Amino acid sequence: MKNLIRKIKFIDKTFQYLAMAATFFVLIVLCVLIWNIFSNGLLRINGSFFTNLPSRHAERAGIMTALAGMGSLLVITIVIALPIGVLSGVYLEEYGKKNKFASFIEINIANLAGVPSVIYGILGLQLFVRMAKMGNSLLAGALTLSLLIMPIIIVATREAIKAVPDSLREASYGMGATKWQTTSRITIPSALGGILTGIILAVSRAIGETAPLLVIGALVYVPFVPEGPNDQFTTLPIQIFNWTTRPQEAFIINAAAGIVVLLLITFLLNGIAIYIRNKWYKKMRY
Amino acid sequence: MKHLVLVFFIFLFCISCFKNYSGRIDIDGSSSVYPITEAVAEEFRIMNGDVRVTVGVSGTGGGFKKFARGEIDIANASRPIKDQEAEAALKAGINFIEIPVAYDGLAVVVSPQNDFVDYLTVAELKKIWEPAAQGKIKSWAQVRQGFPDIPLRLYGAGTSSGTYDYFTEAITGKSKSSRGDYTASEDDNVLVQGVSSDRGALGYFGLAYFTENKNKLKLVGIDNGKGIVFPNDETVTSGVYSPLSRPEFIYINSKSVNKPEIQQFVKFYMEQAPALVKEVGYVPLPDEVYAIAYQRFLSGRYGSLFAKSSTVGADLVALLKADSLSTR
What we know:
- The structure holds 2 protein chains of 2 kinds.
- By secondary structure, chain A is an all-alpha fold.
- Chain A folds into 2 domains: 2-44; 49-283, MetI-like (MetI-like fold, Orthogonal Bundle).
- Helix content of chain A is 77%, strand content 0%.
- In chain A, helix 1 packs across helix 11 and helix 5 (117-131) packs across helix 6 (138-162).
- Chain A starts with a helix and ends with a helix.
- By secondary structure, chain B is α/β, with parallel strands linked by helices.
- Helices cover 40% and strands 19% of the residues of chain B.
- Chain B is built from 12 helices and 12 strands.
- In chain B, strands 1, 2, 3, 4, 6, 7, 8, 9 and 12 form a 9-stranded mixed sheet that branches. A 3-stranded mixed sheet of chain B has the order 5-10-11.
- In chain B, strand 10 and strand 11 (228-229) form a beta hairpin.
- The A-B interface holds A 53-56, 71-72, 75, 78, 135-136, 217-228, 232, 242, 244-249, 252 and B 5, 8-9, 12, 15-16, 19, 21, 26, 28, 31, 34-35, 37-39, 41-42, 45, 52-58, 66, 71, 186-189, 206, 208-209, 211-213, 279-281.
């Protein structure tokens, strides 16, 4: 009996340490990565790094056009993907009938969320760049990225709406509200925290995407800030990728500095997502 | 969030009010020619700020595909256009003017810890890299008598790069004919890392990557039957470093030739190339070549000089002169 207890306790402890080791492993990898990048790149970051155009001189090269390209790309992507994604999510959760066809759609959306991003790039190349004759423009890039993040937004919207308790809806119906009034005044506002979190996470995924944009023909040397949806563009990940392939050491440092900026933007977006979620959950005490 | 978006759009709108541009030049293609064209575009912008020049990196093959679709004005290429590519372009009504812009030597390198290899003959390189060597030539001892029995690990360009096409053609005699069991990467810095830390490693890539990593690598001389030659500016330009020095090209779309911005750009390219090519780590062509090539552009000589012959060991000056004299 005593032996058995000892054995069980041993297993217990072992599992605890194993789980701890796994957690620390991940943390250490992250720390090494961040330390490596920041120690290389942090000193390179100064004002002119943000305002300079691409250049063959590493010390004169900057990320202005890459940042502007990325920013405009994301804004257009959100404008396209947000309404479609959120509305589909609301439809599937609130209006759609729960039958076999619905579950078929559900499975396919989950599958779409897992399709490798380069495949969206190939689709975008054929559909938007060539058939719709948009060329390698911001609009074509944004449409491609919209396809990429739409499943994520739909899934997040559905989860958020699912979490709204039925009692709230029933109370609304009880007051004589119509379906539209209930959805627009009760359900969506209650779920907005979750929806926004999902959208921000989707955007922070889109930020790092390089493969689909390279496929649709995003460029590397773009010495101007895009001024409209038909302009050509480059983005920060592409700029970083190009710098890492240069022979000169100084470009590798530039790449590290670019990664620092990209990481900070991602951290910031994720931080905003967490902040909104916490704030909303405090406000929405059912 | 909404305010941020609004502010951003206003910002974009404001910039667009101040900027104006006349004419655009779309360039795409090889990643090895990219640094040269980027340098030219950067300098060109100082004088002609209102012309929008963009450069992409789709690889030589990818660039020619876009060229044939009429999507770009100039294609960067680290090898001459292939027959099928030229046909595809002609079918779409696009002809091209071929302009050589620089030489690039391919460096064959080993790790600094490697104390037994000073030079390799072309035949030995062929023995190592030919498809028949796959799974068979695994040790340095098999390469030459007297080499130690150390495992041979190979690093080379990825199959979609022009470097791969050229190296395989120069060494095994046939483009794209190479063994497959080696570490391939499109990113030459990965190859540099791989070779530098492995005593049994052998790799090849553009000379610029060796020059920037001199202390991490050891250059291998090439014996092509006329003595051992190391790649440097003189041996690459003079063609003594044969067969591993190759010309790099730009191809001008015949539909764009008459645009004033393209004419300015090509003129500028030919004027600035000798200085800029050197600055970005490549080897400039003899001045004569730039002069003849520019004349060819002005007189509208379409077609490739290498439609029938290979670039391996080609003498550009002689080829260009012969072509200018002939009346096609």
